Amino acid sequence: MTGWIFYGLAGLFFLLSQYAAIESWREREGRAARRFFVAGMHLPLPFVVLGLLDVSGAWALGILGVLVLVAGDMFFPRRGGTIGEGIVPRGRIDERDTMFSRVDLVAGTRPYQAYYHRHPGRKKGDDRLRANPGLLSSAASFYDPHIFPAARANFELIEYNRAYVDGEVAEQQLSVDPCFLARYLKQLARKYGAVSVGITRLQDYHLYSYRGRRHHYGEPVDNDHGYALALTVEMDHDYVRNAPYALSVLESSRQYIRSGLLALWLARIIRDMGYAARAHIDGEYEVVCPLVARDAGLGEIGRMGLLMTPELGPRVRIAVVTTSAPLQVDDRQERYSMIDFCLKCRKCADVCPSRAIPFGGRENIDGVWRWQIDQQACFTYWTRTGTDCARCMSVCPFSHPNTPLHNLVRQGINHSGLFRTFAARMDDFAYGRKPKPLTRTEVMRAEGLD
Ligand code: SF4
Ligand code: SF4
What we know:
Layout lengths: L1 H25 L3 H13 L2 H9 L3 H19 L23 H4 L7 H9 L4 H8 L16 H15 L16 H14 L4 E6 L25 E8 L2 H5 L4 H27 L4 E4 L8 H7 L4 E2 L5 E2 L7 E8 L12 H10 L1 H5 L11 E3 L2 E3 L4 H11 L5 H5 L8 H12 L1 H15 L8 H7 L4
Antiparallel strand pairs: 1-2, 2-6, 3-6, 4-5, 7-8
This protein binds iron/sulfur cluster (2 copies).
The site of one iron/sulfur cluster has 12 residues, from helix 13 and helix 14.
């Protein structure tokens, strides 16, 4: 009798491994498919041997008990560790300190002189990166004559959209139920392509202190909206896996458009109900999107400094709508398991071509426990290659597609510290510690364009 239990377990492990191999093959993960296939041939062997030995009932019960305990540890929801204090920044962030702002400063102009008078230590590095060809430049090292123009066209389209982030509010104000309106707006956003949507009270630290982008440079941010809705849209897995090459920047620009259009549209709907609403889209931010999204319950900020969502990890783009319309807010959900996984994984730090991502634990920066990437190193790489890299995003184990196989692993990561250690090593085993980017030809072939 005990023999059949072990044969059953052998069959279960065999089927699971082969299922993982087939799924990996469908995801164009050749190495993972091969490894799961071979593992599936070996993993059942100990159980077959135990079956042949026909061990005693007590032994069989003991082995089964251990397996049940391991499975229970993986899938039984319980309270894990806590992220604890220090998640709220002491003050506002100045958008002029971001690399997107600094790269645009022109030597000899007043903003340039004022900025480096305040931050003399940043001048040399910034001057060096401004001497590089620049994002989407035809002189950049990853220039692609077909893909760069498409990405440039996308960013141009976003530029046109910037005029519509705000607008007139209808005179007649609709009386709204905060609970219904929140559910309605979230449902609309999902229906039109958002992966996740959440609402939070707008906090002072969500807002930039000063604007840092082009025509609004140096303007103080004054936004008295009480609420913020954050949404994410998915970035295509194959295109992101081409990172750090051109298809990844094409995909970023495409998703900036999609998330931006959703935010513009929702803001317009709210204004029509008689409430102030402003969309925060690429280049037109008054808020720090990852902080808003985190507080709206959409994820945690991981080692690479991006929002990590439970559904797709960092493989998303965010847009935000701030509004005076009363909305029921979502609770921020602490996801200690994500932070703990980042502590164990460090894969992004290992693959980062500019060594911009730290390897150690979180540090207390301005009152917040977090990882701080070296923005200057990261952006210098972007301006040399012409793409927005995204290599860290592409290799992150949380970026795998939203399929039953990967969701099973996500469940385990969520519930068990032991499984987090195992999953980080398994990801290296299956996909490699430094997975190779998918080539442009492979992506195009999958799209029928070879
Ligand atoms: S690659 Fe690993 S360490 Fe980096 S953000 Fe993703 S989970 Fe965290
Ligand atoms: S985008 Fe590229 S260079 Fe920047 S932190 Fe990520 S891996 Fe490093």
